[in-house]
Amino acid sequence: MAVTVLARRSMSVGLVLAVVSAVAFGSSGAFAKGLLDAGWTPGAAVVWRVGLASLLLAGPTAVALRGRWHLLRTGWRPIAAFGVVAVAMCQVAYFQAVQYVSVGVALLLEYLGVVLVVGWLWLRHGTKPRPLSIAGGVLALLGLVGVLDLVGGGTVHPIGVVCGLLAAVGLATYFVVSADQRAGLPPVALAGAGMVLATLVLLLAGAVGLLEMRMTTLPVDLAGRTLPWWVPVVGLGLISTAVAYGLGIAATRVLGSKLASFVGLTEVLSAVLIAWLLLDQVPRPVQLVGGVLILLGVAAVKLDERAPVPEPVEEVVRQGDLTPG
Fold first, then answer.
1. What radius of gyration, in Å, describes the C-alpha atoms of the chain?
2. What is the value of pTM for the model shown?
3. String of b and e for 116-130 (b: at least 16 CB within 10 Å)?
4. CA distances from 4 to 160, 179, 266 (A)
5. N- to C-terminal Cα distance for the chain?
6. Cα-flanking dihedrals φ and ψ of residue 186, to 5°?
7. What average pLDDT does this structure show over 110-132?
8. Which end of the chain is more exposed for a tag (fewer CB within 10 A), N or C?
């Protein structure tokens, strides 16, 4: 009974962390929009976002490791996958995609990564999706179409589609790697080390001309106010990246990659609502309906989760430590 109660509490904490992470991720669009309107290039915004996050996570990463620096060596594979694929490649591919297709189409392509997670678990671990998960996936994707307001159609370019699908691979990698605890890396350490590696990769991409780097110190218009350029930069680095990735990894450790990826779909709804508040971009009724469908899809996947308590929770109970993760 105690184990069951603890498992439920852990699941509830995981869901809260996942939603907060999704909302934090959703704020990136509003912060970035202000910078781009002020003359920044996407590459410059991404480098500042990831670079600042790596600095902010350096202290928590050191505390989490507590001298266990060998974990960075033994866990280099998940760190490399997270930093290179889940962060650097995903963000670069997404910004490249929006140069050829609309932002809505690019974001919808990226979130096909949720479907890739289900497919990966099926192929790699034999976890065949059951009807309720399939129904939840369909509802969530239909909800994305509504939230992104794609009913009017969008311009599709082959290069944009390829880049959007690469971003989907990056997103799927984020959820799969975050859920893997075999390397023993604390969530914040995986995020911190991954951010450092991603920063180096992005700087290299800029050096070879893959990313155009241009920034300005012009004031930024946000939430109807004129703010210094560093305000949205701090928002991108702290809220949209350091907090979002840190909490997101912790949530995925509790929920698993499948459920966490579907809860992550609420990022799109969050992005729409935050843009409404900060940029005065009022969502259309079809977008609100889409948001409801996303929540229904997440609920369906949640109901389809298997009941048995994961062994790590039982081990924690035996050790008398009730702290999740």
1. 19
2. 0.68
3. bbbebbeeeeeeebe
4. 47, 21, 27
5. 20
6. -60, 150
7. 75
8. N
